[in-house]
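To make the argument concrete, we let one protein speak, a sequence paired with a row of structure tokens, as a model reads it:
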Amino acid sequence: MAKTKKTTTKKTKSRKIYTCNTCGRTTTVKKHLCNPGKIEEAYTCEYCGISSTNPLHLCKPKVDDIKYYCDNCGRVSVSRSLLCKPKSI
């Protein structure tokens, strides 16, 4: 009997992503590409589920949820605790 892997329900996770040097396709499984290239770190968005190499990825569901900005640096956030001088938008 095969053992099943325990999965986590962590919302924000990081994983390796592989890019095909020929066609540009990206995947998390290297053997699915004909000419695998550079390995990059990918982040899964907790709002839309898309994998992106940009840790600052913004999508419509996340933008709709942003409620605060930092009065010091201008950064935006969905949570007051992530900003040094939070102000409501």
The longest helix spans residues 60-65. The chain has two domains: 12-57, 59-89. The two ends are 55 Å apart (CA to CA).
